[in-house]
Design a protein that fits this description.
The chain has helices at about 15-25, 50-55, 75-85, 105-115, 135-145, 165-175, 175-185, 195-205, 220-225, 240-250, and strands at about 1-10, 30, 35-45, 65-70, 90-95, 100-105, 125, 130, 155-160, 160-165, 210, 230-235, 265-270, 275-280, 285-290, 295-300, 305-310, 320. With about 350 residues, the chain is α/β, with parallel strands linked by helices. The chain has two domains: about 1-210, Spore Coat Polysaccharide Biosynthesis Protein SpsA, Chain A; about 240-335, no CATH class. A seven-stranded mixed beta sheet has the order 4-3-1-5-10-7-11, with helices on both faces. A six-stranded antiparallel beta sheet has the order 13-14-15-16-17-18. It has a three-stranded mixed beta sheet with strand order 2-6-12. The radius of gyration is 23 Å and the shape is elongated.
């Protein structure tokens, strides 16, 4: 039995999405080799066979990859195709529906699920619940006997991620109404695929709740070093390019410390509106005197210090590469560190 079974829609004809999957394969997971993971990639019917074959390659040894060529182009239909045809509640302890523009700490996520929840009990969780109205969903629910769900405000649904226990999936699999819903929803190539699993859980008297360790946003600092979030979303090179530039610079230099850095010293940061003493920590954090995380540091292939000093990714903040050879880099006179923009 797998610890996690992950369902992800795939579209490789779009070069932007194809690049996302390249990054997803490299940066999408913090792995735990002791856990067994199964990924179902639900592909559109017009993906090139060679692209799908490439998608299967290069994953961690504890990952089993299955690409399913569905008869559908629309993402919602491809997601429903999994639940109509491939859902097996005896396959895994936990099931996750997610997108490719995300990052997940598998090691800590499974640890938290095992310590605080139980796959044999009834759980379905997400990062945020929405009440987005849908004419398609309303008509299908009315058709199979759930007309009252749209009396007043629309029913809840998740945004992007669902984590569902094995016990809930067993109920869903055994529920005739859920099967009808999935088969009908698969026929409508419109709107989003985020409603379906929440509706199915409600049909078996399970109500989706929000968890504070799942974020629908690109909370990269809290994911990368602080571990407040074990899953983040809307993080991709076409949206948060500076994060991926920093990862590209530092990913192969994890265990190196730049010569310029001394963990025992405090430094002075002068950057935009920040004027404060800071510390560089061995776990890659950059913190102020109140121990608040201001950023993360890493080492470039040329052993220079590089820092990423903001979580406000939408502003496309520059990465700083700091050395003692440039006026725009690092100044260490009397233990003071002044950071100015280096490049862009």
């Amino acid at each position: 039995m797998y610890d996690l079974e992950i369902i992800i829609p795939v579209e490789l004809n779009d070069e932007r999405i194809k690049r996302r999957f390249e990054d997803f394969k490299k940066y999408g997971f913090k792995n735990d080799l002791s856990k067994k993971i199964k990924i179902f990639f639900m592909a559109s019917h017009d993906n090139k066979e060679e692209d799908l074959e490439d998608l299967k390659k290069g994953w961690y040894e504890n990952f089993d990859i299955e690409t399913v060529v569905t008869p559908h182009k629309h993402v919602a239909c491809r997601i429903m195709h999994y639940y109509s045809n491939y859902l097996n509640p005896e396959s895994a302890r936990w099931y996750i529906q997610m997108d490719e523009d995300s990052m997940t700490n598998i090691k800590l996520l499974i640890k938290k699920l095992d310590e605080e929840y139980d796959h044999k009990d009834l759980y379905q969780m997400t990062g945020v619940l929405l009440k987005q109205p849908s004419i398609t969903e309303k008509r299908i629910l009315e058709k199979i006997g759930f007309k009252g769900w749209y009396d007043g405000e629309p029913p809840d649904h998740a945004y992007e991620i669902y984590i569902t226990s094995q016990a809930v999936m067993k109920r869903i699999k055994d529920c005739k109404a859920c099967g009808q819903y999935f088969k009908m929803r698969e026929l409508f190539p419109e709107e989003h695929g985020d409603h379906g699993l929440c509706h199915a859980a409600r049909m078996v008297k399970v109500y989706t709740f929000t968890s504070n360790f799942l974020s629908p946003n690109a909370k990269f600092l809290e994911y990368y070093v602080d571990y407040n979030y074990l899953h983040i979303h809307e993080i991709s090179r076409d949206r948060t390019n500076e994060i991926f530039k920093w990862l590209d610079l530092t990913e192969d230099q994890k265990n190196q410390k730049p010569d310029i850095l001394d963990f025992k010293k405090s430094y002075y940061l002068s950057w935009r509106f920040d004027k404060t003493w800071i510390n560089f920590k061995e776990n890659k954090e950059i913190t102020n005197v109140d121990n608040r995380i201001l950023g993360i540091w890493g080492t470039t292939p040329s052993n220079d210090l590089t820092v990423f000093l903001s979580n406000e990714c939408s502003k496309n903040n520059p990465i700083f590469i700091l050395d003692e050879k440039t006026e725009q880099g690092i100044k260490t006179k009397d233990g003071r560190l002044e950071i100015k923009i280096f490049g862009n």
